[in-house]
């Protein structure tokens, strides 16, 4: 489907409010909002509740702007992939020009307002994050290298650092560790999906690792990244944002995640196809709650710390 045909179909359809919300990728935005909130609350500098609310709102808008720009640029491959062909642009409900205008407008608004509400550094950091996701990942890496999801995953890992920057005006070891939690989690999360959705990436011509290096290599990479992720996740427990509760959560989750990665590594395609990729799908479902539970534990530690119950 060409860009022109997509635009023509959109002009023939009637976009609803929900279609414009869908452009903002609300599921992705929810992770952005939550990790940014945890970064803000876990920071050692208190933030006025109203400023905190405004900051998280503008970070959410910035995350939505990134989603709209991504859908604008990727509308051609979204139309080919089963997982994405129902999105507003390829489905003909919203035009590409509309998506681009919305993404650009929300990008400028969110960055300027965050700088005014919190500090200039956080506003610039949000602008860099949007640029990284929309340009570095979407326009460059996604279609040019099998390391697309590895390097591009940084965009989704920046929000907790932005939240921390809202409170402190800078960066610290703790905020970098929160970044690494998301950054190292992203490849095994998406590679597990790619193992049982490979035809989508083949059809769209996206050089996902499963396409360029094959599934056995992808299974090895999942194990390697999961092992590195476990070291980061458990090590975070012994910093100022960790504590006994976080350590318990990290030990249990990473034991389960590592066990799943080992099971994936030991399988071949005949075994996977025989049970409809049951192990890979189970690992992917676990990955959906993995990051949330780690950041929830950091949040609880931060909330309990003033009462002498959180932290070490």
TrEMBL record:
<comment type="pathway">
    <text>Porphyrin-containing compound metabolism; heme O biosynthesis; heme O from protoheme: step 1/1.</text>
</comment>
<keyword id="KW-1133">Transmembrane helix</keyword>
<keyword id="KW-0812">Transmembrane</keyword>
<keyword id="KW-0350">Heme biosynthesis</keyword>
<dbReference type="InterPro" id="IPR044878">
    <property type="entry name" value="UbiA_sf"/>
</dbReference>
<feature type="transmembrane region" description="Helical">
    <location>
        <begin position="148"/>
        <end position="170"/>
    </location>
</feature>
<dbReference type="InterPro" id="IPR006369">
    <property type="entry name" value="Protohaem_IX_farnesylTrfase"/>
</dbReference>
<keyword id="KW-1003">Cell membrane</keyword>
<keyword id="KW-0808">Transferase</keyword>
<dbReference type="Pfam" id="PF01040">
    <property type="entry name" value="UbiA"/>
</dbReference>
<feature type="transmembrane region" description="Helical">
    <location>
        <begin position="286"/>
        <end position="304"/>
    </location>
</feature>
<dbReference type="GO" id="GO:0008495">
    <property type="term" value="F:protoheme IX farnesyltransferase activity"/>
</dbReference>
<comment type="similarity">
    <text>Belongs to the UbiA prenyltransferase family. Protoheme IX farnesyltransferase subfamily.</text>
</comment>
<dbReference type="InterPro" id="IPR000537">
    <property type="entry name" value="UbiA_prenyltransferase"/>
</dbReference>
<feature type="transmembrane region" description="Helical">
    <location>
        <begin position="28"/>
        <end position="44"/>
    </location>
</feature>
<feature type="transmembrane region" description="Helical">
    <location>
        <begin position="50"/>
        <end position="73"/>
    </location>
</feature>
<feature type="transmembrane region" description="Helical">
    <location>
        <begin position="245"/>
        <end position="265"/>
    </location>
</feature>
<comment type="subunit">
    <text>Interacts with CtaA.</text>
</comment>
<dbReference type="InterPro" id="IPR030470">
    <property type="entry name" value="UbiA_prenylTrfase_CS"/>
</dbReference>
<feature type="transmembrane region" description="Helical">
    <location>
        <begin position="222"/>
        <end position="239"/>
    </location>
</feature>
<feature type="transmembrane region" description="Helical">
    <location>
        <begin position="124"/>
        <end position="141"/>
    </location>
</feature>
<dbReference type="GO" id="GO:0005886">
    <property type="term" value="C:plasma membrane"/>
</dbReference>
<keyword id="KW-0472">Membrane</keyword>
<dbReference type="GO" id="GO:0048034">
    <property type="term" value="P:heme O biosynthetic process"/>
</dbReference>
<feature type="transmembrane region" description="Helical">
    <location>
        <begin position="176"/>
        <end position="196"/>
    </location>
</feature>
<protein>
    <recommendedName>
        <fullName>Protoheme IX farnesyltransferase</fullName>
        <ecNumber>2.5.1.141</ecNumber>
    </recommendedName>
</protein>
<comment type="function">
    <text>Converts heme B (protoheme IX) to heme O by substitution of the vinyl group on carbon 2 of heme B porphyrin ring with a hydroxyethyl farnesyl side group.</text>
</comment>
């Amino acid at each position: 489907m060409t860009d022109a045909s997509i635009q023509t179909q959109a002009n023939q359809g009637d976009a609803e409010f929900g279609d414009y919300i869908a452009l903002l990728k609300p599921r992705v935005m929810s992770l952005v909002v939550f990790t940014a909130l945890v970064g803000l609350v876990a920071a050692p500098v208190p933030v006025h509740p109203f400023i905190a609310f405004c900051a998280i709102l503008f970070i959410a808008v910035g995350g939505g702007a990134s989603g709209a720009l991504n859908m604008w640029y990727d509308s051609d491959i979204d139309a080919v992939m089963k997982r994405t062909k129902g999105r507003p642009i390829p489905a003909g409900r919203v035009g590409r020009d509309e998506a681009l205008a919305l993404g650009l407008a929300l990008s400028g608004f969110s960055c300027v307002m965050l700088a005014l509400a919190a500090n200039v550094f956080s506003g610039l950091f949000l602008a860099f994050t949007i640029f990284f996701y929309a340009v570095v990942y979407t326009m460059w890496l996604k279609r040019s290298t099998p390391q697309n999801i590895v390097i591009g995953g940084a965009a989704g890992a920046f929000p907790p650092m932005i939240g921390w920057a809202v409170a402190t005006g800078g960066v610290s070891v703790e905020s970098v560790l929160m970044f690494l939690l998301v950054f190292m989690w992203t490849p095994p999360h998406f590679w597990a999906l790619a193992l049982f959705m490979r035809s989508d990436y083949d059809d769209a011509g996206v050089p996902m690792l499963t396409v360029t290096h094959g599934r056995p290599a992808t299974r090895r990479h999942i194990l390697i990244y999961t092992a590195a992720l476990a070291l980061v996740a458990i090590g975070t427990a012994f910093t100022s944002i960790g504590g006994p509760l976080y350590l318990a959560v990290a030990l249990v989750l990473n034991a389960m995640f590592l066990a799943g990665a080992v099971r994936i590594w030991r399988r071949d395609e005949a075994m996977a196809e025989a049970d409809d990729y049951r192990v890979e799908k189970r690992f992917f479902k676990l990955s959906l709650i993995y990051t949330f539970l780690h950041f929830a534990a950091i949040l609880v530690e931060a909330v309990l710390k003033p009462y002498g119950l959180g932290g070490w």
